[in-house]
């Protein structure tokens, strides 16, 4: 009888729960992410610049060592770094930013999201929180790597050293399959016929409806879909597509270039291309690793970042990881 009563209440609770949270897996994922943030000691903060709000989380305080600013890839957010910073010392000042239009940072559909404009916005953020009172270690992966490289070229006094993780924006002798697909995708977006990259609010609402039978806050979701489409077009525009390639010879900070050997998105040969253009650089090609280094090899990545950080700072190489 007790078991029957228990099953009855569990059934009632499950029904209420499913009605209230149709996307319960998403809810559980968010809870998991929040727990990770707490476990890592990351504090979520906001800062505004002329009405534009940046969201970031950080740990530690600026000290004798350079701070670390980490820029995530396209369509991700600051949580991408949680597994990487797990091994960082607690006294190392780390800042992980939601890139313009991503996560909880303001999303303006009328804004330009080319690589150069995003680098300018990152500079505004850096000045707002006073991060450039002394040079800092700048880390960027994928799109974040492109913007980090351009930032280092445009604001050299801000950057003490630079870590670039499989960044796009380079000119290759031949396109790989992924780049060929992207170019086809861009052609189809220009013809307004591509269902994967919405260019209007209605297209965004329709795309969200395909993904879910119960559309919740459709305008917000449509805005996100529209932004991703616009962000893709801005970053892949002629103005922005190869800006890292055109800027890499201007980078003067010591640079670390990390690439996954099995990267099918950006060809690993880009690592040598960057190394030849940046005077003080080192290259690491990771085995059993694709484009998403933070997911494939977070511990190895953490170790490489810290070794590079301390080697440039001139501190003990055997400093213990937290």
Automatic annotation (TrEMBL):
SUPFAM superfamilies hit by this protein: alpha/beta-Hydrolases
UniProt-listed InterPro entries: AB_hydrolase_1, AB_hydrolase_fold, AB_hydrolase_sf, Epox_hydrolase-like
Membrane topology term: Single-pass type II membrane protein
A GO molecular-function annotation: monoacylglycerol lipase activity
Major subcellular site: membrane
Compartments, record wording: Late endosome membrane; Lysosome membrane; Mitochondrion membrane
Reactions it catalyzes: 1-dodecanoylglycerol + H2O = dodecanoate + glycerol + H(+); Hydrolyzes glycerol monoesters of long-chain fatty acids
Origin: domain of life: Eukaryota
Domain AB hydrolase-1, residue spans: 66-298
EC number per UniProt: 3.1.1.23
GO cellular component: AMPA glutamate receptor complex; late endosome membrane; lysosomal membrane; mitochondrial membrane
A GO BP annotation: acylglycerol catabolic process
Described purpose of this protein according to its UniProt entry: Lipase that preferentially hydrolysis medium-chain saturated monoacylglycerols including 2-arachidonoylglycerol. Through 2-arachidonoylglycerol degradation may regulate endocannabinoid signaling pathways. Also has a lysophosphatidyl lipase activity with a preference for lysophosphatidylglycerol among other lysophospholipids. Also able to degrade bis(monoacylglycero)phosphate (BMP) and constitutes the major enzyme for BMP catabolism.
Protein family (similarity comment): Belongs to the AB hydrolase superfamily.
Protein name according to UniProt: acylglycerol lipase
Source organism per UniProt: Podarcis lilfordi
């Amino acid at each position: 009888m007790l078991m029957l009563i228990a099953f009855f209440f569990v059934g009632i609770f499950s029904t209420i729960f499913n009605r209230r949270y149709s996307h319960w897996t998403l809810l559980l994922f968010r809870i998991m992410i929040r727990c990770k943030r707490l476990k890592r000691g990351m504090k979520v903060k906001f800062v505004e610049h002329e009405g534009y709000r940046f969201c970031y989380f950080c740990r530690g305080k600026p000290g004798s060592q350079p701070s670390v600013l980490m820029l995530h890839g396209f369509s991700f957010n600051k949580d991408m770094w949680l597994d990487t910073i797990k091994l960082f010392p607690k006294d190392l000042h780390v800042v992980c930013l939601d890139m313009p239009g991503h996560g909880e940072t303001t999303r303006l559909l009328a804004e330009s999201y080319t690589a150069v404009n995003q680098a300018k916005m990152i500079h505004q953020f850096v000045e707002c929180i006073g991060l450039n009172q002394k040079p800092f270690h700048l880390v960027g992966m994928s799109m974040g790597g492109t913007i980090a490289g351009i930032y280092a070229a445009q604001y050299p006094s801000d950057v003490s050293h630079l870590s670039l993780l499989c960044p796009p924006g380079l000119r290759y002798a031949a396109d790989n399959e992924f780049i060929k697909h992207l170019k086809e995708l861009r052609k189809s977006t220009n013809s307004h016929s591509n269902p994967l990259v919405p260019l209007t609010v209605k297209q965004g609402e329709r795309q969200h409806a395909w993904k879910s039978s119960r559309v919740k806050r459709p305008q917000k979701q449509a805005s996100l879909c529209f932004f991703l489409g616009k962000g893709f077009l801005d970053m892949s525009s002629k103005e922005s597509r190869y800006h890292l390639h055109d800027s890499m010879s201007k980078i003067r900070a010591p640079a670390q270039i990390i690439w996954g050997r099995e990267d099918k998105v950006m060809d690993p040969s880009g690592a040598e291309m960057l190394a030849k253009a940046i005077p003080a650089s080192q290259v690491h090609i990771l085995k059993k690793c694709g484009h998403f280094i933070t997911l494939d090899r977070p511990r190895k990545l953490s170790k490489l970042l810290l070794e590079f950080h301390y080697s440039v700072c001139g501190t003990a190489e055997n400093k213990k990881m937290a």
